[in-house]
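Re: Re: ligand-bound prediction request (bumping)

Still looking for help on this. To restate: I need the protein modeled with iron/sulfur cluster bound, output as structure tokens. Inputs repeated here so nobody has to scroll up.
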Amino acid sequence: MRCDKCSAPAIVFQKYSGLHLCQKHFLLDVEKKIKREVRKAKVEGTLAVAFSGGKDSAVALYVLNELLAKSGTNIVAITVDEGIAGYRDNVLETAALLITQLRIEWKIVSFEQQFGVRIDQVRDRPCTLCGILRRSLLNRAAKSVGASTLATGHNLDDEAQTILMNYLRGDIGRLLRLDHGEKAGLVRRIKPLKYVPEKEVALYALLKGIPIDLEECRFSFGVFRAEVRELLNDLESNHPGTKYSLARGHEKILQLTQRTPFELRECVECGEPSVKQLCQSCDTLAKVRLHGSDVNESEP
Ligand code: SF4
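Reply:
Sorry for the wait, this slipped through. Here it is.
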């Protein structure tokens, strides 16, 4: 098969676009999708990048550095140590390779230090607590380095899953808070990879030789997310473009609501921004300490 752009041998077929692409045009296509999101975001000052060492955040950090570092944007990578023995230590070693290669400032923060909890000591649904605490800690760390924006490595698959999960739960409040702009105490978030399918992120990392850690955390995401992932993969296979439509549709809804559907106050416990009296981190930590349960699956 030949590339539809230049007739060189194709290495990939994008069912959703109907295009066969060679290596060069595949890499350009991924970068074009990321560039579009970055341009929309108009990043100024310091950009914090959530960097776990996995393929998504490594590709995000690599491409953002290529796109923005030369134009004067200060990039700081932030890694959260969740407290998972035998996992995070190995990942940090690989993560250090990319940091050294890109010569980027790196800040490592930990749940244990901030919240006094390790995820490997949580018995019930550790991923749920992990996701909630990670969001909170990333926000705190981004603020501490003076970042105007925080980029995360969510890819198209993550994004479509999270949107569909919230639709299925009827959780409109959370749907509207997924991609929030800047709010008091809350650093604006962007997801530069949100229109790049997961498989393409992995292929990009491989072709570019970006050091990534392939080790899986021994905890796995919740059952509901796994079911939604399977459902979406089936739909995408039968109806190419489904994941993109979900993400794009959600973005249009946010534009209609002008991203101001919720107000924030200070959490009475920790002072971080919150929709309710207690922020999600303090609320969930309290429940876990009391009952070890009663939390919902959330964003990865
Ligand atoms: Fe945290 Fe779950 Fe991811 Fe492990 S798999 S890092 S516990 S969210």
